[in-house]
């Protein structure tokens, strides 16, 4: 499997690994079709004393009770794994060695849908998910549909831009969430729908 470790890049030392063709074109097309049947919703987020719509659609599937709260205001309650998502989870675990208990879907309908600079370090992801140690947690995300710019930067540092292709997998290794931020910025370009499936660990719920 083609794999690019950005640890090895002289100009961009990033704690991530990118697999541009993790899924074949046919597998990625079929998964994109499956994603049309998922239960997408537009959640509301509370920021700076205001309630506003999250600028993308979201869904969550996973182990029972593995609720996910982010930005102290958006509570996602997982639906049971679909067969397709469970199979994909297992294939990512086989390729990376990391285990996951939930998958969060983000659907970017147009260029104005986005996700701002953040790190994924919710306490539900582990006792010390943000610490760069062997016990800290990881994320693995599959991209489908239109290509959007993804940016990652060390906290206080300069961003590296790259484009996550249809069927690709991006793994953020343990420690990444402690030292780096990432985002998918808005764009004025005309772009089609992009779907991102982010597999994550969780310390709660039923096993
Ligand atoms: O859409 C992406 O590639 C990134 C999603 C993301 O940052 C997140 O779900 O926390």
CA-based gyration radius = 16 Å
Ligand roster: 2-oxoglutaric acid
In N-to-C order, the SSE pattern is: EEHEEEEEHEEEEEEHEE
- Biggest sheet strand order reads 1-2-13-10-15-8-5
* Name of the CATH class of the domain at 4-57 and 67-144 and 164-173: Mainly Beta
Give the overall silhouette: globular
The CATH superfamily of the domain at 4-57 and 67-144 and 164-173 bears the name Alpha-ketoglutarate-dependent dioxygenase AlkB-like
Biggest β-sheet description? 7 strands, antiparallel
Structural class, from secondary structure content?
alpha+beta
What's the N-to-C terminus distance? 31 Å
Unreliable residue stretches: 7-12
Question: What fraction, in percent, of the residue positions are helical?
Answer: 10-25%
Overall pLDDT: 90
Domain Fe2OG dioxygenase: 99-203
InterPro entries: AlkB-like (IPR027450), AlkB-like_sf (IPR037151), ALKBH3 (IPR032854), Oxoglu/Fe-dep_dioxygenase_dom (IPR005123)
Keywords: Dioxygenase, Oxidoreductase
GO molecular function: dioxygenase activity
Question: Could you characterize what this model shows?
Answer:
- The strands form four sheets. Strands 1-2-13-10-15-8-5 form a seven-stranded antiparallel beta sheet, covered by helices on one side. It has a four-stranded antiparallel beta sheet with strand order 9-14-11-12.
- The protein has three helices and 15 strands.
- It starts with a strand and ends in a 7-residue tail after the last strand.
- 34% of the residues are buried.
- By secondary structure, the chain is of the alpha+beta class.
- The chain has a domain of 142 residues: Alpha-ketoglutarate-dependent dioxygenase AlkB-like (Jelly Rolls), CATH 2.60.120.
- The protein is globular.
- Bound molecules: 2-oxoglutaric acid.
- 2-oxoglutaric acid binds next to strand 8, strand 14 and strand 15.
């Amino acid at each position: 499997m083609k794999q690019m470790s950005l640890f090895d890049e002289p100009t961009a030392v990033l704690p991530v690994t990118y697999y541009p063709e993790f899924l074949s074109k046919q597998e990625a097309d079929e998964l994109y079709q499956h994603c049309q049947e998922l239960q997408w919703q537009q959640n509301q987020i509370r920021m700076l004393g205001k309630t506003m719509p999250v600028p993308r659609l979201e869904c969550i599937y996973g182990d029972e009770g593995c609720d996910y709260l982010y930005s102290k205001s958006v509570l996602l309650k997982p639906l049971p794994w679909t067969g397709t998502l469970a199979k994909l989870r297992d294939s990512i675990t086989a390729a990376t060695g990391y285990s996951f208990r939930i998958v969060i879907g983000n659907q970017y309908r147009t260029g104005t849908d986005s996700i701002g600079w953040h790190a994924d370090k919710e306490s539900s992801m582990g006792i010390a998910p943000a610490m760069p140690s062997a016990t800290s947690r990881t994320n693995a995300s599959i991209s489908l549909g239109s290509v959007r710019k993804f940016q990652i930067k060390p906290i206080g540092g300069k961003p590296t831009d790259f484009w996550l292709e249809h069927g690709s997998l991006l793994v953020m290794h343990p420690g990444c969430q402690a030292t780096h931020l990432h985002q998918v910025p808005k764009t004025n370009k005309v772009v089609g729908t992009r779907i991102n499936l982010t597999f994550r660990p969780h310390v709660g719920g039923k096993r």
